[in-house]
Amino acid sequence: MSNQLTTKTESFSLTPRSLDEAMKYSEMLARSTIIPKYYQGKAADVLIAVQMGQELGLKPIQALQNIAVINGKPSIYGDACIALVKSHPAFEDIKEYFDDTTDTAHCEIKRKGQSWHKTSFSRKDAEKASLWGKQGPWTQYPKRMLQMRARGFNLRDSFPDALQGLIFAEEAQDYPVENVTPPNQSKAEMLANQLLSKVEAVEPINIEVAQVESRDFFEMVEELKELIVQKEIPGETVMKWLEKANAGCFEEMADDAIAKCLEYVKGK
């Protein structure tokens, strides 16, 4: 009889294997501060994001870092989209380039066994869609936003099986905000929703705050909305922010303006 010890090495994984595990895991993550703020304290949202990520092939933490609900629509950040497509077995190649003479972003993608598929998005396209010059990323990173549109259209055309209908977060932020008030809302919550409706433009805001990465922008917006409700910031105050920023909702404000509003609310 052999006394030799056999060791079996198993990889460690937190991926839930049942609905009960998924619910407990979501509750645990919702209490964490390392996940994006728009998921903190929202176990149901965490569960849905983890499930969506699993269908896409993303691990739980990857899903929470790359899937966001923007203007009521689930979306995925551009870098995660391209990563999913490149890992697809049918992916062959991608080319992206920008024509400075026409302010046009081009994207070409080749799927195995198929010809190249090309999409473009120009400044004229952005102007027609009322995006060019819009407060926020379209003012701060116009070339990047054009690139994301051209890429997003192509990825969804060429690899719908990899993305399963999700749109880019960079595209979702341009959708109008739906002002829907659920039943039994508190006055503070109703006020927070009302503040997202369109207001008449007055003058641009003049705030000097260090720039932040675009990924942080959506997290700051969600944090600002939550703090407005928690600290019961007067509606008149927030309406002035929107008016001075020439914006109809927080998502249309510049990064530095959102940062300045957060600084004010946190000091209350």
Question: Can I get a quick summary?
Answer:
With 268 residues, the chain is of the alpha+beta class. 46% of the residues lie in helices and 13% in strands. It folds into three domains: 52 residues, no CATH class; 84 residues, no CATH class; 80 residues, no CATH class.
Blueprint of the fold:
Elements: H1 19-30, H2 43-56, H3 60-66, E1 67-70, E2 73-76, H4 78-86, E3 91-99, E4 104-111, E5 116-122, H5 123-128, H6 137-140, H7 142-158, H8 160-163, E6 167-168, H9 169-172, H10 187-194, H11 214-230, H12 235-244, H13 255-266
Parallel strand pairs: 2-6
Antiparallel strand pairs: 1-2, 3-4, 4-5
Helix pairs in contact: 1-2, 2-3, 4-7, 10-11, 11-13
Task: Describe what you observe in this structure.
This protein is of the alpha+beta class. The protein contains 13 helices and 6 strands. The chain has helices spanning 19-30, 43-56, 60-66, 78-86, 123-128, 137-140, 142-158, 160-163, 169-172, 187-194, 214-230, 235-244, 255-266; strands at 67-70, 73-76, 91-99, 104-111, 116-122, 167-168. The protein has a 3-stranded mixed β-sheet. Strands 3-4-5 form a 3-stranded antiparallel β-sheet. Strand 3 and strand 4 form a beta hairpin. Helix 1 (19-30) crosses helix 2 (43-56). It is flat and about 60 Å long. It starts with 18 loop residues before the first helix and ends with a helix. Mean pLDDT is 75; it is low at 1-12 and 194-215.
